[in-house]
Write a structure and sequence with these properties.
alpha/beta, 15 helices, seven-stranded mixed sheet, binds 4'-deoxy-4'-aminopyridoxal-5'-phosphate, 399 residues, four-stranded antiparallel sheet, 16% strand, binds glutamine
Length: 399
């Protein structure tokens, strides 16, 4: 029997076009691979030791005392907002009104999402430093924006920004610069000169700036963290994002924040209230205490991470990788070409089998995937014995 009915239409995919290109985050994929293969996980950036005991106890106390067990105020508990403002003032001389200019978020992840959803109109262009943290691309897409990557390229041992390229990337449709320093995954810390140029460009072209500074306390050697908001003309146009996850080694608590002018904070809050509304009640009280820890905590944390950096960097060098020693963050980007490899994806997928270690292919952080192909990222926020074992295993690669 013949039918006159037209052929069945191809079913419409359930995932919308904005998100279709993103798939599963590399962090979930690689952590699952580590679990499945029993490998050492130097992929996803989380410490294998919890943060200070007294801060854990502060969270327990808050929970027991019934502080934060019900919805906290939308902008965050006053104790934490005050502590965030005091931290910005004490470290950087930046003053923010805890009531109007500070917003607590569910990690930096929500702060990034809320800022982009609040500040972008569909079609607006966002300039971001490539390779970029994977949630940037997804959040720009969810906000209907277009991303315009400016690529950090290897230069004398670190990945650097080409300021002419940055200037050339600005068009009439550019609305926002999305900056990240210290930079994940390259470990680059932008210099005073680079930040000055970024600030001048933002002022000249009247751009908003969202700056992700979650690794502000993880800077090594002579590199110092300079918040973009401290540069001339920047406080009034900059949304600064911080997070307790990296600084206090409690990534699961998901306490992040935004500091910005009243107008910008209020805009970000407009989006944030419809994402989580609020999160992490009791943990907010604990992080308020953490932010008031003495300078010695931050110094010891940094010194400890520096030792770990040296340990893993040395191991990777001995294993034959070219190592870009990071000035900040707890990630080391390597070049795998000296090992006779060119494809970071294939290399990372095979690494558990070959050496019992998991790492992240930097290509996932690139629009121009081929540019990131030979680079692979290893996290060093792990116990010394774990890093030593990983280094020993990686040494077998060249054999
Ligand atoms: N930005 C960068 C650059 C990151 O590496 C991460 C991962 N910690 C985040 C944001 C997200 O931070 P959070 O865990 O506080 O959401
Ligand atoms: N920021 C962490 C990293 O770069 C991952 C956080 C996540 O899994 N979303 O490894």
């Amino acid at each position: 029997m013949t039918s006159s009915a037209s052929p069945a239409p191809t079913p419409r995919p359930v995932l919308n076009r904005r998100l279709a290109e993103f798939g599963t985050t590399i962090f979930a994929e690689m952590s699952a691979l580590a679990l499945r293969t029993g490998s050492i996980n130097l992929g996803q950036g989380f410490p294998d030791t919890d943060g200070p005991e007294e801060i854990r106890e502060a969270a327990v106390r808050a929970l027991r005392d019934g502080r934060g067990n019900q919805y906290p105020p939308g902008p965050g508990v006053p104790e934490l907002r005050t502590a965030i403002a005091a931290h910005q003032e004490r470290r950087y001389g930046l003053t923010y009104d805890p009531d109007a200019e500070v917003l607590v978020t569910a990690g930096a992840t929500e702060a990034i999402a809320a800022a982009l959803l609040a500040l972008l109109e569909p079609g607006d262009e966002v300039i971001a430093l490539e390779p970029y943290y994977d949630s940037y691309a997804a959040c720009i897409a969810m906000a209907g924006g277009t991303r315009a990557p400016v690529t950090l390229r290897p230069h004398e041992g670190s990945f650097r920004l080409d300021l002419d390229e940055l200037r050339d990337a600005v068009t009439d449709r550019t609305r926002l610069l999305l900056i990240n320093t210290p930079h994940n995954p390259t470990g680059t810390v932008l210099t005073r000169e680079e930040l000055t140029a970024i600030a001048e460009l933002a002022v000249e072209r009247d751009l908003l700036v969202v700056t992700d500074e979650v690794y502000e306390h993880l800077v090594f050697d002579d590199a110092g963290h300079l918040p973009l908001a401290t540069f001339p003309g920047m406080r009034e146009r900059t949304v600064t994002i911080g997070s307790a996850g990296k600084t206090f080694s409690f990534t699961g608590w998901k306490v992040g924040w935004v500091t910005a002018t009243q107008e910008l904070t209020s805009a970000v809050r407009s989006a944030k209230q419809f994402l989580t509304y609020v999160a992490s009640g009791p943990f907010q009280y604990a992080i308020a205490e953490a932010l008031r820890l003495p300078d010695s905590y931050f110094e010891e944390f940094r010194a400890d991470m520096r030792v770990k950096r040296e340990l893993l960097a040395g191991g990777l060098e001995q294993a034959g990788f070219t190592v870009f020693r990071p000035a900040g963050t707890y990630f080391i980007t390597t070049d795998i070409r000296p090992l006779g490899e060119t494809d970071g994806f294939a290399f990372c997928r095979a690494l558990p089998e070959r050496a019992g270690v998991v790492a992240i292919p930097n290509a996932v952080f690139y629009d121009h995937r081929e540019q990131g192909a030979p680079f692979v990222r290893f996290a060093f926020c792990k116990r010394t014995d774990v890093l030593e074992e990983a280094a020993a295993r990686l040494k077998t690669l060249g054999r």
